[in-house]
């Protein structure tokens, strides 16, 4: 009664006589919290209410009419509609309604509904809790903020546009790739450059690695690299030589992972403690290298590292194990394919969300094509992994091994220290040897990934529902308040469309008995899901003048919607 009420005391006399005897005062308080609950799929014309008739679940002040064997009457704009009661509904799906004489403008349909089950839409309003003072509306409409931010950040990278003034020398196309955007600051002396590019045919983005002035033929190992499809390795798709840059450059084409950031940038440079990049060309110097020309560590950097320990800036150990598990998984696949990474360091491993991936695989094979000792290269990979973990544990790349191991001993578990020492030792080892050292932490990682997968799956389910409801809303919006259709200025106000208009009011324009807008998303979700399913649950629609109350089922409303939308679709299609 009150869902369209604009003042607190509507004239009771205006209600149709069938309902005038109802004791409104005795009914439960009209506005209640609607607890989200599971949606129970219905079959047509069974009279089981979808939401239990508990005081917690009713929409505001919509009082269930006493179901009597008589025919219900409703008057709309001078037309009286007769609605059959429960008993007169036949389970074969037929339902009849008739108008009294009086020339109403609503053509009363004789509807045939399918007897099969309607589509099942589960988890109706579970993600649409009822509005409360404390919950912001935004949190109900959108996915969790962390996931949303991750997605938006990736989109930002996906839709990034090149600035031609910034890089005027960049070619428009390289073979099938165009719209080049450098992934790093271009430096005139570097021997490699990376770009994001778009494939001209399929429109997908790729990460291109250009090896400048590359004279020899592509390494045979590229074919093996292209076969590696692993979640912790960025996939190589193709490689070719091009003269587009005015030299013989080799281009290696990889999957593009938007918003990927190197471990160096995320954990070391961000800490401000490990920038060991040579200012002249941005290249990375390994502080543990046996090369006598490599920059040596400084005592003050050791102090900075110790200060980092003191103020708790070290990475939590689970983060390190997460990286170890993923990197060893990647290395395992690479070594099993008879290949070696050869350039594993913090600038060649990227992270997106929680995923760690080894980047630019195969580049070292192109640059050092003559290095054929694969077994040694595999050992070097494991040593490089040990150095990488040590750098991350200390959040610096500028400290000597002894000091770093000492720090790890003090700050982390014995297991982590043993693993690092094993990786750095000269003894022959394989990735499989590391597995017992990782031990049960492997299961912790699997659990974490499964939880994340569950989270995304749940979110996906909700988004599926949101998409479905959006399509329904779009259909309703195409119909409601349409100024004219096929020269008929009253099209959206008459016939089936009139019911849809009243239904729209019921769903979205309900007010509390005090006349305040009733913004309950559970109510909206409940109504739209019932409409989409075409259930046999009845809904009472009050005309705007509050003089008539119409009893309709969601199945009827669904039929009205489909009919009206079909009319629109036909009118939209130009005749041949
Ligand atoms: N497949 C990829 N998809 C998206 N971004 C990537 C991909 N691989 C690497 N990146 C990003 O590209 C950027 C540049 O990578 P690159 O390896 O050239 O960095 P670098 O540290 O400058 O190394 P180098 O000195 O060898 O050029 C990095 O920020 C990295 O996160």
From TrEMBL:
Pfam families: Pan3_CK (PF18101). One of its GO terms (biological process) is mRNA processing. Residues 440-478 form a coiled coil. GO terms for cellular component: P-body; PAN complex. It is found in: Cytoplasm, P-body. GO terms for molecular function: ATP binding; poly(A) binding; protein kinase activity. The keyword Cytoplasm applies. The N-terminal zinc finger binds to poly(A) RNA. Homodimer. Forms a heterotrimer with a catalytic subunit PAN2 to form the poly(A)-nuclease (PAN) deadenylation complex. Interacts (via PAM-2 motif) with poly(A)-binding protein (via PABC domain), conferring substrate specificity of the enzyme complex. Regulatory subunit of the poly(A)-nuclease (PAN) deadenylation complex, one of two cytoplasmic mRNA deadenylases involved in general and miRNA-mediated mRNA turnover. PAN specifically shortens poly(A) tails of RNA and the activity is stimulated by poly(A)-binding protein (PABP). PAN deadenylation is followed by rapid degradation of the shortened mRNA tails by the CCR4-NOT complex. This is PAN2-PAN3 deadenylation complex subunit PAN3. The gene is PAN3.
